[in-house]
Design goal:
- This protein is of the alpha/beta class.
- The chain has 4 domains: 4-131, Rossmann fold; 144-307, P-loop containing nucleotide triphosphate hydrolases (Rossmann fold), CATH 3.40.50; 310-389, Orthogonal Bundle (Helicase, Ruva Protein, domain 3); 399-445, Arc Repressor Mutant, subunit A, CATH 1.10.10.60.
- It contains 20 helices and 14 strands.
- The protein has helices spanning 12-24, 35-44, 62-73, 88-96, 109-139, 147-159, 176-185, 207-212, 225-228, 244-256, 282-287, 293-299, 315-331, 343-346, 353-367, 372-383, 388-396, 401-419, 424-431, 435-445, and strands spanning 4-8, 28-32, 49-53, 79-83, 101-104, 166-169, 194-198, 214-215, 221-222, 233-237, 259-260, 267-268, 273-278, 302-305.
- Helix 2 runs parallel beside helix 3 (62-73) and helix 19 (424-431) packs across helix 20 (435-445).
């Protein structure tokens, strides 16, 4: 095993017993005999797990001071506290400062090994989660050349340099979490936690516990999202779904910069950057009484608005190429050449936005069709329920031919204009018309040209 455990005890016999016990269990160890040695070892390299004696040579609770020092560096390092002068107050104090477990001397060796095993498992799980988050950070980029997407990319660059609160508004699947992660990654907090609290997925009775944590009767502490995100970033996704009474408590935290855990009596101060997101229009939610206006103004220091993918058609070909390459790499399969001008794709409503498009590309990649016709059939089958062409056909049955043709031309040319970001020359070339003829057609159909 590569897991490294730091053992700190001023009693030579106990230190050696623990050291041999841990080595026999297959772990690497480092040892320290007093406070200063321990401090040097901790500052030299953080251990994966630490076993600390509560009372060393500096004072009555210098082991607690070392515990606090470790947690300041990385709150995820599991620390097991041991003491020959144990009492309930000392155990509670250790747990309050973040100890993983507390054990009295003389200790049962099997019990200590069990604690160590659980601590190592906890460490490995947190390590895997961090690696997974890192992979998420690097796995997808914000892709597109539409005006909306390029503006958001520029906003991220500027906002990341600040510590200000951010509100991200956009439909489901449009990339709100990705934007929040990019802001965190590019900020000075990027080495600290990025924590997500999804307001739509929580049990209505657990909002306070999930946000503020809890002090339990046995003295143990359950940390909430605010403390987990200390020094880092907290994303409250779908904040519109948070009940009004909890909204008022979030507002109080933003105003006072402190809070109490559930059943706690002490004020907790944390340093957290707050990012909030919603698929709903919060201004409308305020009007109907579902969201606090004062909280909205607090969280909305910077606002990022993501348009639906159906309004960012020029992004679609770039996203298809990007996802085709990424998914092929992830699955270690041959990259497929998917026609990014496929009318079914360009004319689809994309109610699931970028997530829906990515899922489609992933489905095609996994099925590995060997001809363009098969690829096209998968696309048609996947999108047929909402396909633009099918809708046009159905709607056209009840109107005269001239009106149906005009409606089709209007929707078709509007989509092509969006695709080429209002560039008349490129649109004319694509649809096979002279530039002047396209101008006349747009005017005749009442389509407003845009830049």
């Amino acid at each position: 095993m590569n897991t490294e455990i730091l053992i700190v005890d001023d009693n030579t016999d106990i230190r050696n017993i623990i050291n041999e016990l841990i080595i026999d269990a297959g772990y690497k160890t480092r040892i320290a005999a007093n406070f200063n040695q321990a401090l040097t070892e901790i500052d030299k390299k953080l251990p994966d797990v630490a076993i600390l004696d509560v009372k060393l040579d500096k004072g009555d609770n210098d082991g607690i001071e070392l515990l606090s020092h470790i947690k300041t560096k990385d709150k995820d390092v599991p620390v097991i506290m041991i003491s020959g002068h144990a009492n309930m107050e000392m155990a509670i104090k250790s747990l309050h400062y973040g100890a993983f477990e507390f054990i009295e001397k003389p200790f049962d060796q099997e019990r200590l090994l069990n604690f160590v095993s659980r601590a190592v498992e906890n460490f490995n799980l947190r390590k895997q989660n961090k690696e997974y988050e890192t992979k998420l950070f690097s796995s997808y980029d914000l892709i597109g050349d539409s005006k909306n997407t390029t503006n958001i990319i520029e906003q991220i660059k500027k906002i990341s340099l600040t510590q200000s609160r951010v509100f991200i508004n956009g439909p489901s699947g449009s990339g709100k979490e990705l934007i929040a992660r990019k802001i965190h990654k590019n900020s000075s907090r990027n080495k600290n936690p990025f924590v997500i609290l999804n307001g739509a997925l929580l049990d209505s009775n657990k909002y306070e516990l999930e946000l503020f944590g809890e002090e339990k009767e046995n003295g143990s502490i359950s940390y909430g999202a605010l403390e987990k995100a200390n020094k880092g970033t907290l994303l409250i996704d779908q904040i519109s779904e948070i009940p009004l009474d909890i909204q008022s408590k979030i507002l109080r935290v933003l105003t006072d910069q402190k809070f109490k855990r559930v059943n706690g009596s002490n004020d907790i101060t944390v340093d957290v950057r707050l990012i909030c997101s919603s698929s709903k229009d919060l201004k409308k939610e305020i009007q109907i009484g579902n969201f606090r206006e004062d909280l909205f103004h607090r969280i909305n220091v910077f606002e990022i608005n993501i348009e639906p993918l159906s309004q960012r058609i020029s992004d679609i070909p770039l996203l298809i190429k990007y996802f085709s390459k990424k998914i092929a790499q992830n699955y270690n399969i041959k990259e497929l050449n998917i026609d990014d001008n496929n009318s079914y794709i360009l004319n689809h409503d994309w109610k699931g936005n970028v997530r829906e498009l990515r899922n489609l590309i992933e489905r095609i990649a996994i099925l590995q069709p060997d001809t363009n016709e098969k690829i096209s059939n998968i696309i048609k089958e996947s999108l047929k329920n909402d396909n633009f062409k099918d809708n046009i056909s159905e709607n056209s049955l009840s109107v005269p031919l001239k009106e149906a043709r005009e409606k089709f031309e209007k929707e078709y040319l509007t989509i092509q204009l969006k695709k080429f970001k209002g560039n008349i020359s490129k649109t004319a070339n694509f649809v096979g018309m002279e530039r002047s003829a396209l101008h006349r057609k747009l005017k005749g159909l009442g389509i407003k040209e845009f830049n």
